[in-house]
């Protein structure tokens, strides 16, 4: 039989209900549900939550519009949690509401008063004896026919009467949702600033150590390294992805494995495992975490190919099948066959894949950027990620899920902590607005966390190709203020903008295939701008969350306007970006004052965190003017003048 | 472990997955699902469906846009069914696609041809021996190095090769959704035309028999009678819902029960059980089914009140609690307490409620209009409806769920066949458009079936109050052509339009409290119009479904334009309604020619089923002009001139 009270559409949840929704420790989780029953009784509801196998904590829910109830709870530890929603009929509140209406309408309420007395009498029996006398007094007053209705009724107005029922274990029609799983991550799972670099271009791990002050100085907190393993010699790619290579070509780090080792070995040019420890430790001293690439594919020279031929696809001529997407061939890479013919082989392979992670976790790595997860079975990830996180709940997985939306969402649902997104290709006002609203409020919001990248070593995206400082600043501001997690690939701050071909997203002389020497002190670079953006992200709690973004209207289709505010409106940031790198755009913008927590009839200040200019505005339609070629954004801290 | 292939968002389904989606026998059910896996292999999918515990039937699915797959199946019998979606990797199709691309690109495909030969060889072993030789021949050709690539490849183009794999039991990565329940109703559950009348106003059952030719003549197929049971004497309501009654007042039929009996008794003024049989039988001869009211409430005089005091709420002064919604009191009705204090009482009460239905089903009734289901527990309905339908799958329950949207949807989800809707109050173009799109394509579409009523004995809705023929025709056309099920309450065809008070939806001299004598031959009545509308509903299969409605644009906000077409476009109806009863509205309308199945560059005819006028149109922006005060609608049959 179903419960007397309907508790439906309980959020947060992942669509299937099998995998957990995601939350962050020390941040509140908003639980909501449709709660209703037949008739007109007053209902009460609560959320019960706990770390898995821990003690339940109860939080009372409040009723919002349209039978939607909500409550917040705040997990303090990371790892698996669960919650459920309970509802019951509150006979006393129902009585109190109805008797008040009848009394106001001048009706005889003597029988109702007796009903109330009986209710209180019954519930008081559940209280400890010392607390009962005051209830007996209320009951006596309710039954005292020498008093008027109003006076008798007033006796129930005392707060201890309300508390009696709030705390009472007598919960009529008690109904419950099923337990809903929630995975609680550390804060960096949601709020992180990534910087990607190729250590081989900096002289290996020890050379990279020397760059830590620079990267940390810009305000990043995650330093992501492409694969650091030996690179295959067979069919190695040359510069600019050439099919043949010269003797001195270094090859793509994603062609993993040589006679020197595979996914747990280090490329000799980068250093030793001790050098790697030094890098991890030094990075930590600078507030930086090292993120490694987890790319489950092999060069033909990878030790696995000889040791475990059953983990690869074979062809009738005895050769190992290399990667291809007909008619394209990727001769330097062989894909792993995640479904070998026997279950034992499968189990050994999957364990071997997990052991790679175990190895690097043991060496201090807690963040993995996962290469092309959509080309490996969902079942593999659904097994792997919980298997790792149950021992190491601090481990973060970023999915390089540049694939179709349903697969992207599915990877997030089955366990990936964060995901690359389509932000890289969203450039127009409407598409940015729609995409952000979808990410923040759409069906994936409970379990998919975006990480916005204006560029990657694979993608010099449209507007950046041949672009100047304006567009590089614009895309950085959008990524860093729209999403709590974002990242850039080294060279962005130098405005590297040359594509391999006019219609190609690949960089010319891509660092994937050769060593790059950069002058990071190049005049006119964006280091100061990047540093300031990351400073503002640290200063403003409002920028460290996703599901608080609100768009505001601007008639000018090149001006995009959005705000983020903390729940208590103590920190409010308004961002205005000129999307036109061609020059000046201006116009009135139309602010939703409530979202900014200001009274627009009185003056308020908007202080630009980029220029330190302070504007004083009254009303909700200020005029803005931004030069897209040079200074394309305002990042405004909004405060009412008191 | 999760399946290798993701099969997600499988439709049709009810939200919780516990209760069945709804379908109709001899009409196709569209199943769809998101189906994808890692990598680029070609997938295949099928729907397996069966009547519960019957044989599974397989239907191959086709891939639509964005990884959404679909297939149709057609249940033939009513009752519980289930289906599931299966998907697998089609290695042969993958091979065929890839080898063709490589061959076109001029690559060496000798190893690929051997791969294909091996695949065919393996699969042919699964075939019966007599069919194997032709495959051996193909394999030999594939391996014949004396032939060119093109010739060898062509050998696999034969249809029996494709069939080999389509029928093969070798299904790699075979994955399956869970079984999804579907309840299959008879067609009347979806497509029905209701007429409501009070038999006491027509002289009881035998008097009603005399009106059957009139009701059937108008084209209705369900004749719904308000409660036919003895009416309580205590606190009986007088005319116009007066709190006191005169000796000759007949009382509300919803105050069920007197010393003469309760829900299985017949009011003596209406006739005997034999008369009732006569009515049911005669109605059937006219193609009409009798629908009874199932109103689970009692007058104080109902036998249950004395026999089963535990089934009612009692007050401290010993009285039985009558219905109220403070400060309003309904002294002629006592509500049932569906949760008596013991489980045994509850079980006896629920059984007694079911026995009412069993009784009337045994007397030939198969349709019940359920009064205020939202004031009884959802758990009760979730138990009752399946308990009845498992023995009598032909029984239809219409929910009078005039309540909030979430409750309305929930009642549909747990089992109600049809539901009254908000159509009664949707009068503007935008709200009608939004509401119909929600009902036809929104989240409730898989399990909630609307029944549109322009009026009921309780509701003389806004536009009808004081309205003339134009608005009565308009609301009828909207109800009867937007929804496959609709109904009117007697008097509509006479354009009865006097409200009890100017701001009230109650009728003046409501038939709920008195006997009405009507002259059904009143000049200027809408009998002919109603008859024609129901004729058009019978003629046009397109009007007998909901999920085919498409709205077309019209600049004039008083002109609403929509079409319905059968899947094969063999029957296409375009409806244009002038929503302004004040007079003429005209303008260009903008037709979506694809939805109408016409080529707008060539002439097509639009034949008005109401006026028999035939228009010849070319292009997709015809001009229309309708007089809302008189003839407010076109119901146009669209056919291309060939």
Explain what the structure shows.
The structure is a homodimer of 642-residue chains. In chain A, a hairpin with a 5-residue loop joins β29 and β30. Chain A has 642 residues and is α+β, with helices and mostly antiparallel strands. Chain A has 15 helices and 32 strands. Chain A has an 8-stranded parallel beta sheet with strand order 21-20-19-18-13-12-11-24. In chain A, strands 30-29-32-27-26-25-28-31 form an 8-stranded antiparallel beta sheet. In chain A, α2 runs antiparallel to α3 and α9 crosses α10. The longest helix of chain A is centred in the middle third of the chain and has 20 residues. The mean pLDDT of chain A is 95. Chain A starts with 5 loop residues before the first strand and ends with a strand. The radius of gyration of chain A is 30 Å and the shape is globular.
How are the elements arranged and paired?
2 copies of one chain form a homodimer.
Chain A lengths: L5 E6 L9 E4 L4 E8 L6 E9 L5 E4 L1 E2 L4 E6 L5 E11 L1 H14 L5 H15 L7 H11 L6 H6 L4 H9 L4 E5 L3 E6 L6 E5 L7 H14 L4 E4 L47 H13 L3 E6 L2 E2 L4 H5 L15 E3 L2 E3 L3 E2 L7 H20 L4 E4 L7 H12 L6 E4 L5 H10 L3 E3 L8 H13 L8 E2 L3 E2 L2 E2 L8 H14 L2 E5 L37 H13 L9 E6 L4 E7 L6 E7 L5 E7 L2 H4 L7 E5 L5 E4 L5 E5 L5 E8 L2
Parallel strand pairs in A: 2-10, 11-12, 11-24, 12-13, 13-18, 18-19, 19-20, 20-21
Antiparallel strand pairs in A: 1-3, 3-7, 4-5, 4-8, 6-7, 8-9, 8-10, 14-17, 15-16, 22-23, 25-26, 25-28, 26-27, 27-32, 28-31, 29-30, 29-32
